[in-house]
Design a protein that fits this description.
There is one protein chain. By secondary structure, this protein is an alpha/beta fold. Helix content is about 40%, strand content about 15%. The longest helix is centred in the first third of the chain and has 18 residues. The mean pLDDT is about 95.
């Protein structure tokens, strides 16, 4: 079994999702896929996570979220259309909007970028959606209950099935959603891989290799052909 995690830039649009799906389909052992929310398509683009944060702020002030949430709805609907997904995502989008309007707390709202993204990727791959809130158990705001998490993961995920799971969040025993810090989808996937005894945990990115300098500062930096874990 291989657990594969894809970050936001690797899932930013339909073209990127198709590339990720092609990687997943290369091996039948890639049976669990963990995803981040769709990332920025360009420097001027706005992250889904940041739009959801603003939706929560507006709802908390009793203001209408229709304009801001329409950006979320349009983004996922456009990706689904470009992928040719037959599954109707409207009910899931309506559920999320309804929860925000109904006063869902900030953690729950912010987690919906990954939640919606996992539904999208699961539909495209034909895999089953598995909610992280059912498996990743927090003991407090910063600590994972590893024993409960291992047990819940093994109970929810069958080795005979294929799943897409949202990263970045889990839940407390009372059902309250808890976020990891930014970049926490990597931890989500590592917890899944450990609990299931995966042969390999893969962390995919949209950059083909490790570069010798930041390409935003240095033009065309050379790739590093060999590097040790210690050097990384």
């Amino acid at each position: 079994m291989i657990v594969s995690k894809f970050g936001g830039t690797s899932l930013a649009d339909a073209r990127q999702i198709k590339k990720a799906a092609a990687i997943v389909r290369q091996s039948p052992e890639r049976s669990v896929v963990v995803v981040s929310a769709p990332g920025k398509r360009s420097a001027e683009d706005e992250k889904i996570t940041d739009i959801l944060i603003s939706c929560h702020a507006l709802a908390s002030e009793g203001r209408d979220i229709v304009d801001r949430f329409s950006l979320v709805r349009e983004r996922y609907t456009a990706i689904a259309a470009d992928l040719g997904i037959a599954t109707d995502l409207a009910p899931v989008l309506e559920e999320v909007e309804r929860d925000i309007r109904g006063g869902a707390d900030r953690n729950a709202v912010v987690s919906r970028g990954e939640y919606l993204g996992a539904h999208l990727v699961a539909s495209y791959l034909g895999y089953e959606f598995a909610d992280a809130a059912e498996m990743i158990r927090f003991a407090d705001e910063t600590t994972i209950d590893t024993g409960a998490t291992d047990e819940l993961i093994r109970k929810r995920l069958s080795p005979a099935q294929r799943y897409v799971e949202p990263g970045f969040y889990g839940a407390h025993a009372d059902g309250r959603v808890q976020l990891f810090s930014r970049g926490g989808s990597d931890i989500s996937a590592a917890l899944i891989a450990r609990a299931l005894g995966a042969t390999v945990y893969e962390n995919w990115t949209d950059v083909s290799g490790m570069l010798s300098a930041d390409p935003r500062i240095v033009e065309n930096p050379a790739p590093i052909s060999r590097v040790s874990y210690r050097e990384v």
